Q: What sequence folds into this?
């Protein structure tokens, strides 16, 4: 794991420095709040670990029990939820690919991984909406929302009312798993229609800003 040092003893854990971009834009915020949908490991390649170390707190969401247990152990002061996020409350057929970041509720992606020889478990997971989660657990600002759900990004964005809950910054995985094929066309209109503006990409993720925080653009682009 590559760690990058910057001011305020900031240590980057994210795969491509996503957390560094976010910190550059949000370093003026004390005790901020994040939501991580598809959190997976609480340390390796984590976009939120560095912020937790700085005193931020938030919500980590992952339907895989292994990752959830690790989140509970590493983030005792966060809210950790062992559920999937979707447009409607219910259940979802879910393909768990143990000890990888490939677990998904997307049949097409799961089929590709299975054909590639990955071992899997087919399970059923609880699905809740971001509206429900935010209504229960969010009392103030959401400084950033990170979404990495292996092909179900559209369903996540369909599940939140951006008029009620407006993260300052959204960072979302924008390519299909294990490829450079762009996948954001199906969900980006939901963000643009809500007033968000596209800011930049790191080749894997795309960054968006809420209309009230366009002043942060230059920090994320850098």
A:
């Amino acid at each position: 794991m590559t760690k990058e040092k910057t001011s305020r003893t900031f240590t980057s854990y994210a795969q491509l420095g996503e957390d560094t971009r976010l910190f550059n834009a949000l370093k003026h915020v004390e005790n901020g709040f994040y939501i991580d949908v598809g959190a997976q490991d609480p340390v390796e390649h984590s976009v939120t670990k560095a912020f937790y170390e700085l005193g931020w707190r938030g919500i980590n969401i992952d339907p895989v029990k292994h990752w959830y247990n690790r989140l509970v152990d590493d983030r005792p002061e966060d809210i950790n939820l062992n559920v999937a996020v979707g447009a409607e409350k219910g259940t979802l057929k879910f393909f768990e690919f143990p000890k990888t970041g490939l677990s998904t509720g997307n049949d097409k992606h799961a089929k590709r991984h299975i054909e590639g020889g990955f071992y899997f478990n087919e399970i059923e997971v609880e699905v809740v909406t971001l509206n429900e989660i935010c209504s229960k657990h969010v009392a103030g600002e959401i400084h950033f929302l990170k979404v990495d759900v292996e092909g179900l990004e559209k369903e996540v964005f369909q599940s939140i009312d951006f008029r009620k809950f407006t993260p300052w910054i959204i960072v979302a995985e924008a390519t299909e798993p294990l490829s450079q094929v762009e996948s954001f066309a199906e969900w980006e209109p939901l963000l643009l229609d809500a007033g968000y503006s596209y800011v930049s990409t790191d080749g894997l993720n795309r960054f968006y800003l809420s209309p009230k925080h366009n002043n942060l653009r230059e920090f994320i682009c850098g």
